[in-house]
Amino acid sequence: MKKIYFDKLLKNKCFFEILKKWSLIKVFGLDSTQYLQSHITIDILNLNNKKHMLCANCNSHGKVQSVLQLFNYKNGYAYIQRKSICKIQMNALKKYSVFSNVTIEEDNNYFLLGIFGKYVRTILSLYFCNLPHSKESIIFDKNIIILWFGGSNERFLLILKKKKLEEIKLFLLKKNILNLKNAWSYLHIKSGIPILEYEVFNKFFPQEINLDLLEGINFKKGCYCGQEMISKIHFRNLIHKRLYCLIGTTNFKINIFSFIEIYDGYFWKKVGNIIYSLHIKDNLFLIQCVLYKKKLNGNSFRITTDINSKFSMFKYNY
């Protein structure tokens, strides 16, 4: 794993970030469990009040509409996803709800606050009596929902209302904990979690963005939207593409779904598409991309629209 800007900062200090590009969606109603069960890639019956789970909802052809961080919430459920995809994803999910007692809506009364870095647990323990951990990855404390994310960098996601947000921000600032922009997305990428924006709606199968490697698909559950194609890919070993992360430089704006090319020693060949890019500093970027596995016969990549760009593989933690 290459050490870059964020790694050096997080190794020595704790930071926070208000996650304005992420949203909280609520699902409730008498039929909410059955309805979600028929649309998501995990078995919702395995979900309990002590954990949150990564999954996706797909169209009837098995293509991913959004990646969700799902958990129990009051008398229903809630999930976190990228804000850019909310409207189109919720409309798609509501499509079959006409005869079901279920409500799906974005909750703009809550804010998302990520806290991460060195001594993050010690610092938060000064404010909270309890914190989530590997065996209990979500807890409710002082009207705040706290989600735990593991990996090489332990981190916490707080879901809270504005008054509490300001209160905790003040607490953190008094402890000399500062805001670090884009760090949450970096840690998501470093953990191999796909970040899906509006432009990649209905573009990839869940295995192509590595959800099977992240325990985001249950191949034993009953029927759900897109299951036939997703199961066929799994049991017949038809996974031709995978999610990878590249690191490198470009002097141009990176557009989602742009082509990535690989140099095979003789020619540049198209090998896949960009699904997300993160600016690190100057002209340095991390990009998540879905690439054809069989075409990866080198480690020299470029973006098709910038022949002077230079990228190489950035390893994931799994």
Residues in β-strands, percent = 35-45%
Write down the overall geometry.
globular
The helix/strand class is alpha+beta
CATH topology of the largest domain: Gyrase A, domain 2
What's the overall average pLDDT, rounded?
A: 95
Instruction: Give the C-level CATH assignment of the largest domain.
Output: Alpha Beta
Question: Care to count the β-strands?
Answer: 17
Roughly what percent helix? 10-25%
What characteristics describe this protein?
single chain, 318 residues, alpha+beta, Gyrase A, domain 2, Elongation Factor Tu (Ef-tu), domain 3, 2 domains, 6-stranded mixed β-sheet, 6-stranded antiparallel beta barrel, 7 helices, 36% strand, tRNA-modifying protein YgfZ, YgfZ/GcvT, YgfZ/GCV_T_CS, GcvT/YgfZ_C
Q: Would you mind describing this structure in some detail?
A:
This is tRNA-modifying protein YgfZ. There is one protein chain. The protein is an alpha+beta fold and 318 residues long. It has two domains: 202 residues, Gyrase A, domain 2, CATH 3.30.1360; 112 residues, Elongation Factor Tu (Ef-tu), domain 3. It is 19% helix and 36% strand. It is built from seven helices and 17 strands. A six-stranded mixed sheet has the order 8-9-10-7-1-11. A six-stranded antiparallel beta barrel has the order 12-15-14-13-16-17. The longest helix is centred in the middle third of the chain and has 13 residues. The radius of gyration is 20 Å and the shape is globular. The mean pLDDT is 95.
